[in-house]
Design a protein that fits this description.
Layout (H helix, E strand, L loop, with lengths): L2 E5 L4 H12 L3 E6 L8 H5 L7 E4 L5 H11 L3 E4 L6 H6 L1 H22 L4 E7 L23 H20 L3 E6 L2 E2 L8 H13 L6 E3 L5 E2 L2 E2 H11 L8 E3 L5 E2 H11 L8 E3 L17 H7 L7 H20 L17 E2 L8
Parallel strand pairs: 1-2, 1-4, 2-3, 3-14, 4-5, 5-6, 6-11, 7-10, 8-13
Antiparallel strand pairs: 9-12
This protein binds NADP nicotinamide-adenine-dinucleotide phosphate and ligand G4F.
Length: 351
């Protein structure tokens, strides 16, 4: 059984990737950080929580990462942990640089010291580009022009991954993923913010929602499709970098219009603009050319924009209907795993 370590397993992509790899027969280890309120709801939602090994570690704590590699002895590491919210990176630029930027070097160093044959995936992003000419989608050779502290930190992560690949001969890949969404997306990101609001408003639980820049355009795909590309990148003979996208761009306004119309409402009656959600700098337009991923990896997106909108609002409506019928959300139930699921320094696995 192949062993894998996922950083950021409690996030959207980490949860879907863990499920994908469990279904492929991997033994899955993930790092989680101690929070005052446990945050395992996505793993519970996908019903995979009891099948995972969890190791306490933090991106700021090099020793904890080294220990995580020792304990899990993985063949592949997927580095997904980061401060991933662009808006917050303007509020917390230094901690974003620490986690989203330097965190990559810390995990790469841990791998280099423990076992440099481990294959490494870095969660790079379309935010690196910062700008997309409308007539030509972005590809692996397009210039990088980051527009936020988050993007600057990811740019560092991108290059340090490349440097470890070239300098130490490590199998290290950058997946340059464009926006990808799902019912497990954090509520602060615009797609889920809108799908959740549309669901609640349609059920009489809320009247309106405030957002920022309605004119921003993104290339939005479906997260479970995208985690498959991460795995594909680590199965090749040689490490490389790949753009993963849909090659379609839609505005926030269009997402709002569609998501509200799915529940029989007109977004103009419910979506207000509040400048507190604007950013000091915003990426206006993104569209990605995923030809290389298609030709070399055989990857292509399966869920289109319209279906993405529908499945997100449907999932949110179902959640709120269940809540109205007295059921708990998974995130209402504070869930502590059974003791032997947590692996600590004193409980090293020896195989
Ligand atoms: P997410 O839902 O925000 O998940 C981020 C994960 O990082 C969470 O598990 C979080 O743990 C963990 N984390 C944050 N700080 C940490 C720290 N100091 N130590 C240990 N763990 C820490 O993000 P996502 O959407 O799944 O994205 C996964 C990765 O892909 C991120 O690196 C993101 O920047 C990148 N990316 C995402 C997209 C996208 O559209 N989703 C596109 C391109 C790239 P907690 O649960 O404890 O907070
Ligand atoms: O949903 P967003 O916050 O995602 P953003 O900034 O594109 O970043 C996401 O995708 C990146 C990949 O390109 C990842 F690297 C990153 O980790 C994250 O997953 O915002 C999308 C757009 C922006 O232009 C924003 O200004 O929506 C606009 N927007 C308008 N009103 C809003 C809002 N964004 C948020 N979060 N909240 C609003 O009220």
């Amino acid at each position: 059984m192949k062993r894998v370590l996922i950083t950021g397993i409690t996030g959207q992509d980490g949860a879907y990737l863990a499920k994908f790899l469990l279904d492929k027969g991997y033994e899955v280890f993930g790092i989680y950080r101690r929070l005052s309120t446990p945050n395992f709801w996505r793993l519970q939602y996908l019903d995979i929580f009891d099948r995972l090994h969890l190791i306490g570690a933090d991106l700021i704590d090099e020793g904890s990462l080294i220990e995580a590699i020792h304990i899990s002895q993985p063949e592949e590491v997927y580095h997904l942990a980061a401060q991933s919210f662009v808006w917050s990176s303007f509020e917390e630029p230094i901690s974003t640089a620490e986690m989203t930027g330097l965190g990559v070097t810390r995990i790469l160093e841990a791998i280099r010291h423990v076992n440099r044959d481990i294959r490494f995936y870095q969660a790079s992003t379309s935010e690196l580009f910062g700008y997309s000419p409308e007539d030509e989608p972005l590809h692996e050779g397009s210039p990088f022009q980051p527009q936020s502290p988050y993007a600057a930190a990811k740019l560092y992560g991108y290059w340090i991954t490349t440097i470890y690949r070239k300098g130490y001969g490590m199998y290290a890949c950058n997946g340059i993923l464009f926006n990808h969404e799902s019912p497990l997306r954090g509520l602060e990101f615009i797609t889920r913010k809108l799908s959740n609001a549309a669901a609640r408003i349609s059920l009489g639980l809320q009247k309106e929602i405030s957002v920022g820049n309605l004119d921003a355009m993104r290339d939005w795909g479906f997260a479970p499709d995208y985690v498959e590309s991460m795995w594909m990148m680590l199965q090749e003979d040689e490490p490389d970098d790949y753009v993963v996208a849909t090659n379609e761009s839609h505005s926030v306004r269009e997402f709002a219009e569609k998501v509200f119309s799915r529940v029989g409402l007109d977004y103009r009656d419910h979506v207000k603009v509040d400048k507190k959600f604007l950013r000091p700098l915003d990426v206006r337009y993104l569209r990605g050319d995923y030809r290389k991923a298609r030709e070399k990896l055989g990857w292509r997106p399966k869920v289109n924009f319209d279906d993405l909108v529908s499945l997100m609002v449907k999932a949110d409506q179902e959640r709120w209907k269940r809540w109205m019928n007295g059921e708990q959300f998974p995130w209402d139930a504070i869930h502590y795993p059974h003791e032997n699921q947590f692996l600590s320094r004193s409980e090293r696995i020896t195989r």
